[in-house]
Amino acid sequence: MPRQxxxxxxxxxxxxxxxxxxxxxxxxxxxxxFAALLARITGALQPIFGTKGDxxxxxxxxxxxxxxxxANLFSPGDCVLSCAVGVFGKRFAAIAERYGCSVEPLNTxxxxxxxxxxxxxxxxxxxxxxxxxxxxxxxxxxxxxxxDMAALASPLRAHGALTLVDxxxxxxxxxxxxxxxxxxxxxxxxxxxxxxxxxxxxxxxxERAWKHMEHTTSPRFYFDLRHAREAARHGQTPWTPPIxxxxxxxxxxxxxxAEGMDGASARFARYAGAVRAALERLGFTFVSxxxxxxxxxxxxxxxxxxxxxxxxxxxxxxxxxxxSGGQGExxxxxxxxxxxxxxxxxxxxxxxxxxxxxxMDLGHDVTPGAATGxxxxxxxxxxxxxxx
Length: 388
Ligand SMILES: *Cc1c(COP(=O)(O)O)cnc(C)c1O
Description:
Bound molecules: pyridoxal-5'-phosphate
CATH superfamily of the largest domain: Type I PLP-dependent aspartate aminotransferase-like (Major domain)
Order of helices and strands: EHHEHEHEHEEEHEHEEHHHHEEHEEEHH
Number of helices: 14
Largest sheet: 7 strands, mixed
Radius of gyration: 21 Å
Number of domains: 2
CATH architecture of the largest domain: 3-Layer(aba) Sandwich
Distance between the termini: 38 Å
CATH class of the largest domain: Alpha Beta
Strand order of the largest sheet: 2-10-9-8-5-3-4
Helix content: 40-55%
Strand content: 5-15%
Shape: globular
Structural class: alpha/beta
């Protein structure tokens, strides 16, 4: 398999020492080495979640943990407010519907972040506290939108419903103070900001969420969070875990912590800024509104006349630069450029150069180096016109 440059919003480029950890000899998952591994991983995750509570690991991708959150926290018939701002938020709502919840959407225009005032108004109108839970997305990967989780926290706390947060592409990239801001369940996954291979999801829950789980009636077995917490307290997982992925995640988290959360967040934001500067120079426009840009994924509409599917295909086939397309109603209409993973300035500049070259190949009028130049200016910290 020739090396590709992955600029996806997950999975992402994984550093060589992380890949090598996958080849380590396996250990007994009921033995002391595994207990130490689990303790290191959860110990590294707690400050990133902003919690002193238990963080449990699941052998699944992120979606499995979203389903776990719903299955453990709600019972059939519960009224749940879905604050989806894109495809992933809608997936979270679809899971709740499948579990028999009565889901009410709070609609937000495409590209906008969830408006704390709109949320506050809806919750204030719920004087009888019919709404039992609120589904939120920290960072909406389909539109490149980041929600302001600090600003959303106070109306949510005032109402008191259980708050479930999909932070799969947010955690580790932008601050989330779970305990301080009062979020009840936060979900993350290995293959995004932590730059590990896919296969492990993480769930943290508040004390009241753990208590609430004792009384919910949705069926669950493999993904029963109570079993997961009980096993974790004995240095184990209830079932055989993906040990090799956990070896890799352990190394990835050590690398993440060596850089520090501030360093990693600044790196993602710096790359997102450079990508936006470059794409803007090429005539792309952004799906996300200017006050809602995500640091981990840039979603952009191509300029008039550019076939984005053909652009992505050629980038992949000719330059081995792999970007994402759109999802849902944005399928075939946008590209998405992820900024997480083990990538460096030269990788980013190479990818942007490849976009310029491919657009020229496709017969578009491009000034060679214009977008790369804009990216270099942004990476060098020089602010150019119109780019935040
Ligand atoms: C990637 C992602 C998911 C889906 O995760 P899988 O690991 O593919 O199941 C869910 N929500 C968000 C916000 C994501 O970015």
